[in-house]
Amino acid sequence: MTDDTADAVFPTETVLSDGSVYRVVPVDTGVRAIRAWAEHPWPMSPAQALALRDRLGWTSSPTDEEMFTTDHGIGEKDAWFIAVEAGEDTRTVVSFRMSLTSRIPKDVMDEAVPIAERAFDAYVEALTAVYGQGTRGKRKQHASVTWTLPSDASVRIGTVGWVIGADVDSPASNEAARGEAQYFDEIADENDPAR
């Protein structure tokens, strides 16, 4: 999908009734960035994440090098990664997050919701073309689709109202989440009075 096609599906920049501008990252641009992070070899060190930031032409925050301002036209810190201690004085990146829409005042949020819905659908379509069918989230006020890659990294795109975000979780993060879910399932089974 080209940026021109995406603009036909949803506008990437809309002036709202209060004069504020609602921006949505074009699908090609967003998907290219999501793929760069998701398809990077895992595990990823913070140094590798910063090298990827540089390769993408993004800028770190002066106060936190793990927070970035992308070149996506949103004009704010709109991406970041989270690294955790991995033992032996080493750190590893466990997740990457990126905003695909700009912030806007609350009193004009409703104007942006239809644009966000169309943009979300366009992102889901583009990521499905790359990664195949994803798994849809089940919450009422929140739409999301998650894809698990062969590396066991995952890509999730989600929207709440006018906000769209993309998350990439490392294979280690996904393994930990599965272990935690299994633990809580076992606790629930043990505490089930019907057993």
Describe the protein in words.
This protein is of the alpha+beta class and 195 residues long. The protein is 37% helix and 27% strand. The chain has helices spanning 3-9, 27-38, 46-56, 109-131, 171-190; strands at residues 13-15, 21-23, 59-60, 67-69, 79-87, 90-99, 135-136, 143-148, 154-160, 163-169. The strands form 2 sheets. An 8-stranded antiparallel beta sheet has the order 3-4-5-6-10-9-8-7. Helix 2 packs across helix 4. The radius of gyration is 18 Å and the shape is globular. It starts with a helix and ends in a 5-residue tail after the last helix.
Q: In percent, how helical is the residue content? A: 25-40%
Strand order of the largest sheet: 3-4-5-6-10-9-8-7
Count of separate DSSP helical elements:
5
Radius of gyration: 18 Å
Please state the structural category. Answer: alpha+beta
**Mass-distribution shape:** globular
Q: What is the succession of H and E elements?
A: HEEHHEEEEHEEEEH
Write the layout of secondary structure elements.
Elements: H1 3-9, E1 13-15, E2 21-23, H2 27-38, H3 46-56, E3 59-60, E4 67-69, E5 79-87, E6 90-99, H4 109-131, E7 135-136, E8 143-148, E9 154-160, E10 163-169, H5 171-190
Antiparallel strand pairs: 1-2, 3-4, 4-5, 5-6, 6-10, 7-8, 8-9, 9-10
